[in-house]
Amino acid sequence: MPTNPADGKEQVSPTSYSDYFISPATNKDLATVNELYDSTYAKLFGSCVRSIKYWKYVLWKAEIQNFNFLLFKSEGVAIGYVIYKNNDIYEIATTNNTSTLELLYTMRERYSINNVILHCSDQHPLIFELGELDFSCTRRQCYFGGHMVRILDADCLLNCLEGELHHTALTLGISNHTEVNGDSEIKIRDKKLDVKILGSPYYYKNTCFLMMANSLSIYSDKNILYKPSSFNIPYFDQI
Questions:
Q1: Cα–Cα distance, 233 to 152 (Å, whole number)
Q2: Residue 108 pLDDT level (bands cut at 50, 70, 90)
Q3: Which string of DSSP letters, residue by residue, matches 137-167?
Q4: What distance in Å separates the CA atoms of residue 108 and residue 71, rounded to the nearest whole number?
Q5: Cα 120 off chain centre by
Q6: Helices (H), the chain
Q7: What is the dihedral angle through the alpha carbons of 10, 14, 17, 20, rounded to the nearest 10 degrees?
Q8: What are phi and psi of 200, to 5 degrees?
Q9: Count of CA atoms in the C-beta half-sphere (13 A) of 40
Q10: Which domains does the chain have, with CATH numbers?
């Protein structure tokens, strides 16, 4: 089925849904599953880096919470996976030349699943494939995602933040400037940038600041250097 060129995928030749082999994902599939995850979710803001150890946790979590974790193959080659429960799909990923929509059609034929709810970013490749089909979108904006994260190396994050802010300052041609974000201060004097954080980096506000994540109270629209974004962590990592 042709896909929308906006998602960057190649045109896909029609495949009979009966040609797909579907099986529960196992430990031996995890390296392949990780490649599938990266092919879809690495392009989306907020995606997580998953080690094999973490994928083993995902398998365990799916089993404990009674989720279905299915691997799709065509002609012996893994082309996608789906994590779902009832009509809720929490993750769906494919290779770059596979239609995500075809996986949904296959699930409808094999498991009589209709009217699915897909928990994903609005930039997920499937959104671009829906075209003129009947679907609706509900947006969930979460400004308080910092509580989901624990900082392990505050100095590393601070260095990354300073590097990004310095690049922004150079791009904007800023030589002298001061911004205050909650308990944190960004100061530029003669093109030299200094970032100060008061208190522990593990405080909620400081965690948000270091990760450039929006919170309910620290961000000001008047700031021109520091532009945080809200978290968009894949839903299965949140539940």
A1: 18
A2: confident
A3: ------S-GGGG---S-HHHHHHHHHHHHHH
A4: 15
A5: 8
A6: 30-41, 52-64, 100-111, 125-129, 154-172, 204-210
A7: -50
A8: -70, 140
A9: 27
A10: 5-129 (3.40.630.30), 145-229 (no CATH)
Whether 90 shows a pLDDT value over 50: the answer reads yes
What are the phi and psi torsion angles at 20 (to 5°)?
A: -80, 140
Model confidence band, residue 146 (pLDDT cutoffs 50, 70, 90): very low
Q: Which of 14, 69, 3 is nearest to 36 (CA)?
A: 69
For the chain, helix (H) and strand (E) counts, in that order, are: 6, 8
Structure token digits, residue 33: 């599953």
**Residue given tokens 């629209």 in the structure block:** 221
CA distances from 82 to 51, 91, 103, 124, 233 (A): 18, 6, 8, 14, 17
Average pLDDT over residues 209-215: 77
Q: What percent of the chain has pLDDT over 70?
A: 80
Query: Phi and psi of 118, rounded to 5°?
Result: -105, 120
Amino acid (1-letter code) at residue 91: E
Mean pLDDT of 27-52: 88
pLDDT score at 122: 77
Per-residue pLDDT tens for 153-206? 889 989 989 998 999 999 999 999 998 887 889 999 998 999 998 888 888 788
